[in-house]
Amino acid sequence: MLLCLLGALATLTGDLPTGTAPQPLPLAHFPDRLHAYIWRNWTLVPTARIAKTVDAKPEEIVQMGRSMGLPDPPPVSKDQQARSAITVIRRNWHLLPYDQLLRLLDWTPQQLEYSLREDDFLYAKLGSLKPKCEHLSYRAPDGAMRQREHDVALVVKREFPEGFPKQTSPLFSFVSDLSRPYAASPRKPGGFSPCFCYSYFALYGDPLLDKQADPYPDAYLKRLAEVGVDGVWLQAVLYKLAPFPWEPHLSERYQERLASLQRLIARAKRHGIGVYLYLNEPRAMPLAFFKDHSALKGVTEGDYASLCTSTPEIQKYITDSVASICRAAPDLAGLFTITASENLTNCWSHHRGKECPRCGPRGAAEVIAEVNGLIEKGIKQAGSKTKLIAWDWGWPDAEAKKIIDRLPEGISLQSVSEWDLPIKRGGVDSVVGEYSLSAIGPGKRAKEHWAWARDRGLHPLAKIQAANSWELSAIPFIPAMRNAAQHAANLRAEGVTGIMAGWTLGGYPSPNLEVVQEVGRGADVDQALLAVAQRRYGSSAAAGMVHAWDKFSEAFGEFPFNIGLVYSAPMQYGPSNLLWAEPTHYSATMVGFPYDDLNTWRAVYPPEVFVSQFRKVADGFEQAVDLMRTTLQHSNGTDEQRAVLRGDMDLAEAAALHFRSTANQARFVTLRQTLKAAHSRQEAEPAAAEIGHILDEEIAIARSLCALQSRDSRIGFEASNQYYYVPQDLVEKVLNCVDLRDRWLASEKARFGL
Length: 754
What we know:
Blueprint: H1 2-12, H2 33-41, H3 47-53, H4 58-67, H5 78-83, H6 85-92, H7 98-105, H8 109-118, H9 122-125, H10 143-159, H11 173-179, E1 195-198, H12 218-226, E2 231-236, H13 238-241, H14 254-269, E3 274-279, E4 285-286, E5 297-301, E6 304-307, H15 312-328, E7 334-338, H16 359-362, H17 364-381, E8 387-391, H18 397-406, E9 412-416, E10 422-425, E11 428-431, H19 444-456, E12 459-463, H20 481-493, E13 499-500, H21 511-520, H22 525-537, H23 539-556, H24 563-568, H25 598-602, H26 607-633, H27 639-677, H28 681-711, E14 717-718, E15 722-723, H29 727-751
Parallel strand pairs: 1-2, 1-13, 2-3, 3-7, 7-8, 8-9, 9-12, 12-13
Antiparallel strand pairs: 4-6, 5-6, 10-11, 14-15
Helix pairs in contact: 3-4, 3-7, 10-29, 15-17, 17-18, 18-19, 20-21, 20-22, 21-22, 22-23, 23-26, 26-27, 27-28, 28-29
């Protein structure tokens, strides 16, 4: 019976992507893969489901967990399960085959396929491959295995003598904190408008269908309005919001989504906030779709092909779909588009339009501008006041002016402000080609595009990251407040009056957003910083906090920015990223798995410069945290103001730990190679000693961050990636480092007689 069930599941999961399907990584710090599985799911999945997935009894799972020193498993609500599904997928990627992963998630193959494709490039973040994991079954531990369980428990007890860290701020408790009704302060008029951002905690894939996970509760909207936000955005997929004429089942429940959208718009409007939808259309279809619709096929990429926007049928579909959405939601504030670089959409979206016999001769500029024109046509067809924002993200430089010259009249052009800024960090020249808070825009590209837009009568908007960026997204805001304020002042001087304040990251109602809007209302940088510090911390602490913010900004200016580095290096995971005795030979993925791929992490920076720059950032942040601590000691603000300062200090300390660990991990990889290549005691001794120091420091860093996250559930979270790590992972990092120190490093030392 079991074999029949497994065979059926294998058939059901046959369409899920596997890529090259390499062998999964071993985890030497656990007794075996089963123990790793139990450990990693202990606080995120109900015990009954953990047990069912591996054909065990719940009491057997609990016994095995307790034998490793784990406390009683906590209750896991359905809301937490929904909000942590991506975290669960990522932590089991090297442990479970697809059929068991589906059982653990309690998902259908279709749900997982949609999530891998539509949850902000999840499959790419996982490496575009699925490790070939063998089926995992419960097996009662024998004597040797029980000894290994005991060894793990001893390490936990020794390294955490006060007991397993207790979470005084349970996972996702920030959602209820931000959703709790409160007496809001009056909203200040003026500033940048629109000023729109993404929810700090929305589920990315299909947020309008989940009634239990409201992306924008009323109290959260109030808080955003207080810091100057007047717009919020959601991802939209046309075939989920309007009928898809060729395969109607793809649009099932679209009326429910539209009704949910209408309710959200009405609620947000009461707070002076408009709702924007992000369109990246038309979405590519599986190759099987084109067996019956070959005339619609554009360029092919992997198992998908674009719906060619040069065909009248697709043009009508885009326009009619947009029109139907705008009719159903007449108060929708705006639509913004990405027409290149992200998902495969139009035939030129991934710069391969020459492969299409229709779009190739027309050229990128005509096709990309036309997609925006079709969307604008749909808005007008509905008689709607909805605004269209064409975002130049991913447009080839050579085509940008041609596209702008062909855009519909009266729309807005949005450009990433800091893009194309030349920088020098650690003596290395680079150019900003992504979101950055360490580099202060606007850059040449945005200025040129805005000038061309003005010549056409288009309204220029700036895309910025006011609160954080992929330089570090694991905390809700980076306290480089002067950088944010100066960027706002530069935009105001450039005549830019509207901003998109953040992609999926940066939507927390932070002091960064407040500072940006203070400048937008006319304050100079110093006035804005002081005003926000006084409101947030009280008069006695304001000057000290501005001084600390300046130190954070100065230190962040040393961040070794490069687009490849911010997507691949381990800043988001910090100390939770494991260390390895041998090279993993896995490549770092986009904000997914850093592994030990230093050559990808460092991008244009030599290894020693990469390490040095992250140490400079960490040193500066630690010094600024000390200033915050001194300011707190001398503050006579209210209890609430002191609590806010204390919480902000915890976030800043967490940031410093992430940067310190990133430097440590890079140095470890370099030293591991040095030790492996050593031929003598003299060559090996300094490398072994430094590795030992790094392992000890990583243990201390993991313990510190574990304590911080346990009392502040915001740490380690970002909306589209969910939790990068949970306290359990930081305890695992301690096990990892102890194992490397006591087993691998001890063996290496013995090899050289050290």
